[in-house]
Amino acid sequence: MEAAKTQLEDAKARKALADQAVKAAQDSLELAVQSRDDADNALKQADFNLDRAEKSLNDAIKKVAAIR
Amino acid sequence: MATYEKIEAEQVAADNNLFKALDVVDTRKKVVADTKQHTATATLRVTNAQLSLEAADNAWKQATSDRDVAQALFSNAQSALNAAQKNLELALTEQGLAAKTLETARKTLEEAQQRFNAAQKTLAEAERNLVDAKEKYSKAE
Fold first, then answer.
1. Which residues of A touch B69 (CB under 8 A)?
2. Are A53 and B59 a contacting pair, CB within 8 Å?
3. What predicted TM-score, i.e. pTM, was given to this entire model?
4. What is the tens place of the pLDDT at every residue in A32-58?
5. Do B74 and A40 touch (CB under 8 A)?
6. Which ipTM was obtained for this model?
7. Contact at 8 Å (CB) between B108 and A4?
8. Cβ–Cβ gap B74/A33 under 8 Å
């Protein structure tokens, strides 16, 4: 019976560690999702800025061509 | 008198020619000035347009670079997210195994406790039987 008690204590300790690992993994995932969303927003903003810059560049090229 | 009039007529004609020539010069000077003005204006417009083009080109290059950086950051974040999801899956698997192990250990302990109780009961009964047997033996003697 002592062996069974020891096994139970070991199993409790292992379960507690597993619970902590799950909590840590969930927190980590939450942060990763937030980081990914932030990066996605930054990428969309960069795409928008690039489109605007391309339009400005095309307009400038047309103006120079018209003058020449 | 005729000679004087002739000279005077020639002088008038010469003056007229001079005035015409001066008019032509003035006209051409004006054309040159206008042309210079137009050239200066056009040069300024070209310079401004080139400066605008240069600025737009620099802005485009910067935006392209920023976009590349943002793309790299997004890829890194996505990789980190995938790794975090994998870690969570592993942790959940480990948690499930630990829960099963815990349940098994509880059952094992419960069974051991039941066996212990049964053994105690058997022992107590055996002890009582022994006492009874001893009493009977004493009486028989």
1. 46
2. yes
3. 0.72
4. 999 999 999 999 999 999 999 999 999
5. yes
6. 0.85
7. yes
8. no
